[in-house]
Design a protein that fits this description.
Low-confidence stretches: none
Helix content: over 70%
Distance between the termini: 43 Å
Oligomer: single chain
Mean pLDDT: 87
Number of helices: 9
């Protein structure tokens, strides 16, 4: 099987080169439109997540540069950073990176994105063994579903499944059964 060993040996060095080029594109000397560079960084980072190349240095540079310039792009950059940490099983860092995303989505009134983010935070808390925190966040996410029924049903199903798992891990089997049956 060539997959992972081949990717580590041949593809990851090239991804590092692309990351360096995109980092240079963030500088004023590059003379490029910032919005175009940020979209390229988001696309590159998203692709990298699928092949387990979790590079947060470039995302950090972009976050610092964009700061509060464009809230939606700032949230997307933070989300990519959180996803990198999550995919690398660094759940503590993932939950920390998801927090700014959650604040921005709330500020912008993007309820679907907010609930998705809450579910990801709850999932990361669970993976990190912080079950009580996971319960709080996931129950909050499900409460939003009860108010806004326009949110994609699979988001709710995912949050319910995760909450059921957490309840099971906590030995709260009746609560697990209840949330999974609803």
């Amino acid at each position: 099987m060539l997959g992972v060993p081949y990717a580590r040996e041949h593809i990851q060095p090239e991804l590092g080169n692309i990351s360096a080029i995109l980092s240079h594109c963030l500088t004023p000397e590059a003379g490029l439109e910032l919005d175009d560079v940020l979209q390229a960084i988001l696309s590159f980072s998203d692709l990298c997540t699928y092949i387990s190349f979790n590079e947060t240095k470039l995302l950090n540079s972009a976050i610092v540069l964009v700061h509060d310039r464009t809230w939606s792009v700032t949230a997307q950059l933070w989300h990519e950073k959180a996803s990198c940490h999550y995919m690398a099983s660094c759940y503590f860092y993932a939950t920390s990176a998801y927090r700014p995303v959650l604040r921005i989505w709330r500020r912008l009134g993007r309820v679907t994105d907010e609930v998705y983010c809450m579910s990801r935070i709850g999932n990361a808390y669970c993976r990190h063994g912080q079950y009580n925190e996971a319960v709080k966040v996931l129950e909050s996410a499900l409460a939003v579903f009860d108010v806004d029924r326009e949110i994609r049903p699979w988001f709710k199903a995912s949050a319910q499944a995760e909450l059921g798992q957490v309840y099971t891990l906590l030995g709260r089997l009746d609560d697990a059964e209840s949330v999974l049956e609803s």
